[in-house]
Design brief:
By secondary structure, this protein is α/β, with parallel strands linked by helices. The protein is built from 8 helices and 12 strands. The chain has 2 domains: 118 residues, Response regulator (Rossmann fold), CATH 3.40.50; 96 residues, Arc Repressor Mutant, subunit A (Orthogonal Bundle). The strands form 3 sheets. Strands 2-1-3-4-5 form a 5-stranded parallel sheet, sandwiched between helices. The chain has a 4-stranded antiparallel sheet with strand order 6-7-8-9, covered by helices on one side. A hairpin with a 2-residue loop joins strand 6 and strand 7. The radius of gyration is 18 Å and the shape is globular.
Length: 226
């Protein structure tokens, strides 16, 4: 039974969401504040966290780093704020997804399922993708340069894994969006570009790695293996 933590100051929303996800087979824990969510994580091992941004006291952005110190579960920001810069801010913090109110419970459920599959998934009959000196450990969900870990966010790792699993093949923006979130719209393109830019910046510290991630103009990206 997957475990879901919902953090939102709207008690009515929490009640509706808990009823829906309990029927879908989730074990659901609720918190009506960021502090309540942090307390819940000391007692409850969540597989996915849905975190409202606009809460009194400590907001979702402020709570995010404290949450990640307690849990490795993917985090989906949930907010009524539709400003693109807020979305980018949340994703740059390292959140795994961002959904805007009002939303359908089916869409939220699909996004949660994508994140849980990603978190627990692995490639059949394989535990690693290796292009020395780069190696992706699919069990630990980590990237290494020789034996040194490359510190990536979940989203950056997911993008690198997706590209590396299809060497020398153009992976389109739509392919990336569908893999990461289960949906894609043109608005997601900038988010993907920001993620790719951050990934490349981190790879710049390692000789030979930046050249592996190549932009395919107006289409997407390619993992280049010579």
């Amino acid at each position: 039974m997957p475990k879901l933590l919902l953090i939102d100051d709207d008690k009515e929303v929490l009640t509706i969401n808990k009823k829906y996800f309990a029927k879908e087979g989730y074990e659901v824990r609720l918190a009506t504040s960021a502090l309540g969510g942090l307390k819940a994580l000391t007692e409850f091992t969540a597989d996915c966290i849905v975190l409202d941004v606009m809460m009194p006291g400590m907001n979702g952005f402020q709570a995010f780093q404290k949450i990640k110190a307690l849990s490795k579960a993917p985090v989906i920001f949930l907010t009524g704020r539709s400003f693109e810069e807020d979305k980018i801010r949340g994703l740059l913090l390292g959140a795994d997804d961002y959904i805007i109110k009002p939303y359908s419970l089916r869409e939220l459920a699909a996004r949660i399922q994508v994140q849980i599959r990603r978190s627990f998934g692995s490639v059949a009959n394989s535990t690693a993708i290796s292009y020395p000196p780069l190696q992706l450990d699919l069990t630990k969900h980590k990237a290494f340069y020789n034996s040194e870990e490359i510190l990536l966010s979940n989203r950056e790792y997911d993008l690198l894994y997706l590209l590396a699993s299809k060497p020398n093949e153009t992976v389109t923006f739509e392919d990336i969006g569908m893999s990461m979130w289960g949906t894609y719209s043109e608005m997601d393109r900038r988010t993907i570009m920001v993620t790719a830019s951050r990934l490349r910046k981190k790879l710049e510290d390692y000789i030979g790695l930046p050249e592996m991630v190549e932009t395919v103009w107006s289409q997407g990206y390619k993992f280049v293996v010579k």
